[in-house]
């Protein structure tokens, strides 16, 4: 219980410094705190957290940031070279200087949560917390208790946003570890279209906690692409919960790419509530050193004629641990469902570890559902074939690892993101090969 | 699809439901240390056995009933169960079939398994468990010639205490889980098989279980040991009479395979599943585990599960020996309001170990079925290999089929694959069969049997025939 107390004390100190605000927000925070206090941090005895030990977070003492100072040069180095509408947060605090919100087309609102609350708090209060309530997990409760900043994105009916919207979360190397609990709310109106890039990065020496909750509502026929590129510093803790609700004929595509963080946990849930709705979950996680990456996904087919397709790949080196838990749920009478799930893991070291658990929970008969999961190593025969073509073993292994990741990356249409991931996967294997050498080799092969 | 026939299936009465009235020494319901002392005394057990039981009981008291399974049943009152029941005249055991109580023979007759015929035709030695007490063991002499020991566990405790002491509880420890602990405290009978070095058991061993006393839980304990290069095939089959009271069945099966040994364990389980409202029916909480201790040893589990109201069963293999092999083949069929949470665990500990899992689930009616499996490879299991396939077939829109496979992989030379599909019988498959003049019902039966073929072909011949018949009966009119 003392673990939760540190967090509750920090919360109390923060609450005492808050100005006046609508009563519902304070009540919501209190509910979150009460729930968090009651549940405590999850332990390995909780089925949902069976393979992920959060003791290092529970025993930490994280401060809250009170400014968004960040050197523009280092921010620029971290920023994705993509022309976009951009909101930047530094340790959870909104950084107007690093944001670009001019030229937003009509029918689109992209606001920091604090400003959205100032403008019209009632419009935020309705949807906020409807999908991810305080009951969802101790971390969701904690997020609610500390809720104050984040992003609100609203798309009017039929509105198509050409440029992607980037939410950039920067983690700073502070005197003491810092935490932030951003809250993201997306309301995409009927037939609207947009791409959201959620980008987590930071300064190398940081050891901060990011605990983000995102809720997305997709109206009828909306098409929404959500990239989550997590390249947090290797000392950071990253907990994320993303919950999507999809109406009829909407399409949600998630690219969940995890490269950084000491301890990472993603919960990704999609509720398919109307006929013709479709979900695509595309994921890649790469772990090295002693990284721990946990991905939990869940697709709820709550309506007939809904579709889901999931493909997650894990690459684990050194003593990294990976967890994949994917569930496809088909509600009674949700007929004519197609749900596919695939998880493949590559272990590059003898001390790497993966726990995989794909689940099907089906209560209707006219369905086509399948899942497959494999864990293995690079194909020795494929390595041999490459070596007969004159490549040395390390380059051969590197090429095959990249090819393994490539099956996920080929669906990533944002080149800047794909490049970052390729570089990271290749660049993080410095002893095996170097990317420049690889590019040369492949060019030579093409000639 | 004809809903009428569907309903007919749901209303179908349990074919093997009848109660044979044989007087028995039954304990009043309740469980405390005195109950255990009574059982132990009744069995004429030595002191160490009683101590063992009491230790298990004390550990059980501290444990909690597991709730993680995808099952839903009212709480079990362990004080409402009678823990001992045995047919009369325990001193006066029949030595041949002629001496067997005619009522017992009649029971087998009704089941369509005439014991003598079966024994004579199939060459099967039968250690028939009628309620909790072993009543008859045949072909013992043939087995004795080869040095094979096949007897009830109670007999083994008295006749071969050293063997029992050496192996009992080494695969499934007393405190392994809630139901195993309960079983360790109160087990009343079961089989004991010991195959010495280099012996291939000359016949298939078989036990027919029947539960026959109202309110009597059945706590079987089976222990099979195969020494170096030994081989045995063991068949277990069950049917149970109809009753309204839920019956608890918490068996423990332990298999030990030493170097190059091979144990094949096949089960056809057809306990009473309850009526159309889910009333009655057996609660089947079984712990089955095989220990591949020796190098190149092999343990193979095959099961056909069609009965019981609740099934909680995970036959597992601990693959310790280098290059040892574990196999699991399962067909589970649920109808009515049956619930089954079943699967396997393959724990790869030794180098070069291999495991193969094929699980076929068929759910119909209002039933719910889950496959729950664990494949774990330890850091020393170099080159471990697993392949898992679990397919589910849904018949009707009010049933459920679920898969929860766990994979925990701890080394980079292991290759683990898992595949699962869930679907219904394809309209195109049915249409194709019908266009060839096959009736819809036959077509369904054919498709379902084809669906299960991978498993049925693993069964010994007599069992395979029985299993196919069972499947056809269970699914009669389910689709059509």
Task: Give a description of the structure.
The complex is a heterodimer of chains A (447) and B (480). With 447 residues, chain A is α/β, with parallel strands linked by helices. Chain A contains ten helices and 21 strands. In chain A, the strands form two sheets. In chain A, strands 1, 4, 5, 7, 8, 10, 12, 14, 16, 18 and 20 form an eleven-stranded mixed sheet that branches. In chain A, strand 2 (85-90) and strand 3 form a beta hairpin. Chain A is globular. Chain A starts with a helix and ends with a helix. Chain B has one domain (3-475). Chain B has helices spanning 3-11, 33-42, 47-62, 102-111, 115-122, 140-146, 153-159, 161-167, 178-186, 427-435, 440-451, 453-456, 461-475; strands at residues 24-26, 85-87, 125-130, 133-137, 149-152, 191-195, 205-210, 221-226, 231-239, 247-249, 252-257, 262-270, 282-292, 298-305, 310-313, 316-319, 325-334, 339-342, 345-348, 354-364, 368-377, 385-395, 400-409, 415-424. In chain B, strand 3 and strand 4 (133-137) form a beta hairpin. The longest helix of chain B has 16 residues, at 47-62. The relative contact order of chain B is 0.10. Residues 88-95, 113-137, 209-216 and 240-244 of chain B have low confidence and may be disordered. Strand 21 of chain A pairs antiparallel with strand 24 (415-424) of chain B.
């Amino acid at each position: 219980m003392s673990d939760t107390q540190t967090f509750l004390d920090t919360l109390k100190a923060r609450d005492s410094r808050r100005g006046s605000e609508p009563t519902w927000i304070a009540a919501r925070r209190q509910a979150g705190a009460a729930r968090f206090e009651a549940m405590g941090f999850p332990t390995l005895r909780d089925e949902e957290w069976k393979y992920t030990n959060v003791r290092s977070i529970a025993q930490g003492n994280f401060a809250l940031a009170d400014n968004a100072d960040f050197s523009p040069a280092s921010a620029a180095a971290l920023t994705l070279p993509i022309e976009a509408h951009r909101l930047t947060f530094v340790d959870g605090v909104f950084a107007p200087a690093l944001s670009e919100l001019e030229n937003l087309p009509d029918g689109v609102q992209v606001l920091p949560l604090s400003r959205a609350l100032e403008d019209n708090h009632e419009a935020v209060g309705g949807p906020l917390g409807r999908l991810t309530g305080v009951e969802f997990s101790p971390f969701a409760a904690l997020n609610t208790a500390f809720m104050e900043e984040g992003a609100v994105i609203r798309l009017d009916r039929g509105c198509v946003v050409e440029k992607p919207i980037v939410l950039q979360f920067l983690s700073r190397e502070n005197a003491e570890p810092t935490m932030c609990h951003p809250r993201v709310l997306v309301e995409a109106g009927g037939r609207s279209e947009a791409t959201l890039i959620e980008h987590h990065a930071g300064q190398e020496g940081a050891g901060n906690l990011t605990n983000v909750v995102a809720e997305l509502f997709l109206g009828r026929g909306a098409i929404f692409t959500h990239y989550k590129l997590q390249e947090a510093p290797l000392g950071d803790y990253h907990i994320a919960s993303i919950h999507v609700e999809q109406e009829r004929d909407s399409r949600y595509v998630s690219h969940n790419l995890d490269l950084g963080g000491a301890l990472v946990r993603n919960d990704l849930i999609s509720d398919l509530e109307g006929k013709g709705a479709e979900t695509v979950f595309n994921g890649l996680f790469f772990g090295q050193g002693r990284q721990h990456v946990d991905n939990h996904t869940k697709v709820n087919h709550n309506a007939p004629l809904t579709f889901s397709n999931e493909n997650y790949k894990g690459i684990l080196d050194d003593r990294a641990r990976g967890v994949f838990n994917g569930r496809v749920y088909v509600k009674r009478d949700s007929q004519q469902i197609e749900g596919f799930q695939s998880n493949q893991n590559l272990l590059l070291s003898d001390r790497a570890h993966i726990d995989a658990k794909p689940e099907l929970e089906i209560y209707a008969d006219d369905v086509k559902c399948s899942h497959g999961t494999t864990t293995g190593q690079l194909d020795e025969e494929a390595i041999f074939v490459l070596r007969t073509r004159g490549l040395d073993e390390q380059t051969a292994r590197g090429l095959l690892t990249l090819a393994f990741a490539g099956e996920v990356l080929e669906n990533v249409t944002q080149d800047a993101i794909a490049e970052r991931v390729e570089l990271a996967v290749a660049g993080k294997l410095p002893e095996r090969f170097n990317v420049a050498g690889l590019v040369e080799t492949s060019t030579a092969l093409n000639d | 699809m004809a809903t009428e026939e569907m309903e007919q299936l749901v209303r179908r009465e349990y074919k093997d439901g009848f109660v044979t009235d044989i007087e028995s020494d039954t304990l009043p319901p309740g469980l405390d240390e005195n109950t255990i002392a009574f059982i132990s005394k009744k069995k004429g057990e030595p002191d160490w056995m009683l101590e063992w039981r009491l230790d298990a009981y004390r550990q059980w008291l501290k444990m909690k009933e597991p709730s993680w399974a995808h099952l839903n049943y009212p709480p079990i009152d362990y004080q409402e169960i009678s823990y001992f029941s045995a047919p009369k005249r325990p001193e006066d055991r029949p030595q041949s079939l002629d001496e067997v109580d005619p009522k017992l023979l009649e029971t087998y007759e009704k089941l369509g398994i005439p014991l003598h015929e079966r024994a004579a035709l199939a060459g099967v030695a039968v250690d028939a468990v009628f309620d909790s007490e072993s009543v008859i063991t045949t072909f013992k002499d043939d087995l004795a010639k080869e040095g094979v020991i096949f007897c009830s566990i109670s007999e083994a405790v008295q006749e071969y205490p050293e063997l029992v002491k050496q192996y009992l509880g080494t695969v499934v420890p007393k405190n392994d889980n809630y139901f195993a602990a309960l079983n360790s405290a109160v087990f009343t009978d079961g089989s004991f098989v010991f195959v010495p070095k280099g012996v291939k058991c000359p016949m298939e061993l078989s036990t027919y279980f029947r539960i026959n006393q109202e309110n009597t839980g059945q706590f079987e304990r089976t222990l099979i040991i195969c020494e170096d290069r030994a081989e045995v095939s063991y068949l277990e089959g069950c049917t149970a009479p109809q009753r309204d009271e839920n019956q608890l069945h918490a068996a423990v099966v332990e298999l030990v395979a030493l170097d190059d040994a091979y144990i094949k364990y096949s089960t056809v389980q057809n306990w009473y599943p309850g009526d159309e409202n889910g009333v009655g029916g057996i609660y089947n909480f079984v712990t089955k585990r095989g220990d591949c201790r020796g190098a190149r040893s092999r343990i193979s589990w095959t099961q056909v599960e069609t009965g019981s109201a609740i099934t909680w069963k995970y036959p597992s293999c601990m693959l310790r020996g280098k290059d040892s092999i574990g196999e699991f083949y399962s067909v589970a069929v649920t109808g009515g309001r049956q619930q089954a949470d079943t699967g396997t665990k393959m724990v790869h500990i030794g180098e070069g170990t291999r495991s193969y899992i094929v699980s076929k689930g068929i759910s119909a009616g209002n039933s719910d079925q889950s496959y729950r499996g664990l494949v774990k490879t330890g850091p020393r299991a170099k080159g471990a290999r697993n392949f898992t396939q679990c397919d589910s077939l849904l018949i009707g829109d009010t049933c459920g089929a679920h898969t929860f496979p766990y994979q925990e992989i701890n080394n980079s030379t292991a290759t683990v694959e898992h595949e699962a599909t869930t679907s219904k019988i394809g309209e195109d498959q049915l249409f194709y069969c019908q266009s060839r003049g096959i009736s819809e019902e036959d077509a369904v039966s054919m498709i379902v049997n084809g669906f299960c073929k991978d498993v049925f072909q693993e069964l010994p011949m007599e069992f395979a025939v029985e299993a196919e018949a069972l499947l056809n009966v269970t699914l009669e009119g389910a689709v059509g």
